[in-house]
Amino acid sequence: MTSNIIADLQSKRNIILENWIAQRELAEDFGGNFNSTDDLKTQSAELLDILLQTITSQNINDLYSSDLEPLFDYIGGLTVSRAKQGFSPRETAVYIFSLKDALLKVLGETISDNRELYTTTLEVSKFIDNIGITSFETFIRGREEVILSQSDEMAELSTPVIKVWDGIIAMPIIGTLDSARTQVVMENLLQGIVDNESSIAILDISGVPAVDSLVAQHLIKTVSAIRLLGADCIISGIRPEIAQTVVHLGIDLSKMVTKATLASALKYAFAALQLEVRRVAKEKSNL
What's the domain of life for this entry (predicted)? Predict the structure, then answer.
């Protein structure tokens, strides 16, 4: 695309905008997410203006040009803004793609040479397509960031460290125990031992649906790390089916203290610290 053609497009900015708005108003997907047609005109005018200001005969074929950063920054903001308005990523991409028709209509009226028109049409089409794809990528990237953030928060909430008594902490685990989650469990449990100056840590796996060789290895590593801090670890929540699976797989947990229930683990921990839990008789009333 030559500089003269770009200048022609800039001079016909209002015509392009009018054609684009008219086309969008007739589109089947145009509807209630905009409060009024004025909102559509404002948004479209901003996008068209920044496009015509940044595009040159050199960077139209170089999407990584620093000159185009303002345009792609605006596209990112536009995608987020439209998502908040209720537009799907597909609707935003289609909206951007529709600008192509308005531009090509003006180009067809401006360029008389068929070969030049063909070349320019390809350049403009490819450029607008890439802008539309960028909007979709921005939406996906934003959604992935939200998912990762929520996953981290869920991981923290699903591995709480509970101070049961002076010197005793417990961590109930619910859900599958994989390598990534084991790392979180180990870090939180070790930090909990240090923060609470605990000598006994109870790891309750009542909520773990199944224990295989991989999960067992994760548990062994966690217990070993706890022992390096000078603390003892009790694994509770060993259900009958888990016990059978462990034996069937030939996994050796004999060096670990295991209990069937959390209550049994607490009783063992209290005994290890020479603590006694007993009922206190109620005082008889003199009345």
Answer: Bacteria
